Amino acid sequence: LPLLTLQDIDKVYQNGTVALQGVNLTVHPGEFISLVGPSGCGKSTVLRLVAGLGTPTKGTMTWPGSTQQRNDLAFVFQDPALMPWANVVDNIYLPLKLKRQRLRSVRGSIQAAINTVDLNGYGQSYPRQLSGGMKMRVSIARALVTKPQVLLMDEPFGALDEMTRSRLNSDLLRLWREKNWTVLFVTHNIYEAVYLSTRVVVMAAQPGRVVANISIDAPQVRT
Ligand code: ADP
Ligand code: ADP
């Protein structure tokens, strides 16, 4: 059963911009799908619709498996969007706090998330004390502490230098394999897309649409 299907989706914004026209996409559990294409082709719009931030103007979006999955989403943006006044532990705690979980009962999960992104010893540090790559790893830890099934990533590593990016790419692949995530990943970088993905969806602009849908056979990174 697919996890999610988008059928013939149009999205027209209030100002008349046709961001998407006739988009079809089927996402199966465990897939790692990259959306690539020029700026303005509607990649972020797709992610926002999947996240339930806004509704399609036309077409249908369904979660055939269960409605549960749409609540198990986590979003990672290019801007790690950490709270500057809170330390790493408290930043990672935020989504759990919003779910009314007590810090005392989730300290172990938070520490595990910190270990997973290789930030041992930085729990009491503040965002201003961390490098760009480290802040992004905090942002990933904040996503994974909620144990999501679906991870939506919008150019997460776009602002980072090449070395940091390549390191985070391998970390992400390791996590994807460990955690059984379904990932929708937006990037400008076709090499990154091919390296990471089981499927690459190529989009074009004006109007935003899907022009190619390519399965990637990359056993060397999937063993
Ligand atoms: P991408 O992520 O591929 O760069 P977006 O989904 O951000 O593309 O945008 C697709 C199109 O919709 C662009 O023309 C963009 O300017 C427009 N757009 C995005 N968000 C809005 C909005 N809130 N209101 C109006 N137009 C928007
Ligand atoms: P960026 O390249 O974006 O600045 P990095 O994550 O590559 O970010 O980290 C930059 C600096 O922070 C490097 O000097 C690196 O050694 C140090 N650093 C990053 N993560 C850790 C860590 N877990 N423990 C110790 N030092 C770290």
Automatic annotation (TrEMBL):
Main localization category: membrane
Tell me the membrane topology, using the record's own terms.
Peripheral membrane protein
Residues covered by the ABC transporter domain: 4-223
Give the location in the cell: Cell inner membrane
Q: Which GO terms describe its molecular function?
A: ATP binding
Signal peptide (residue range):
none
Entry-linked Pfam families: ABC_tran (PF00005)
Entry keyword set: ATP-binding, Nucleotide-binding, Transport
Under PANTHER family, the record lists:
ALIPHATIC SULFONATES IMPORT ATP-BINDING PROTEIN SSUB 2 (PTHR42788:SF19), TAURINE IMPORT ATP-BINDING PROTEIN-RELATED (PTHR42788)
What family does the Swiss-Prot or TrEMBL record give for this protein?
Belongs to the ABC transporter superfamily. Nitrate/nitrite/cyanate uptake transporter (NitT) (TC 3.A.1.16) family.
Q: What is this protein called?
A: ABC transporter ATP-binding protein
**Which organism is the protein's source?**
Leptothoe kymatousa TAU-MAC 1615
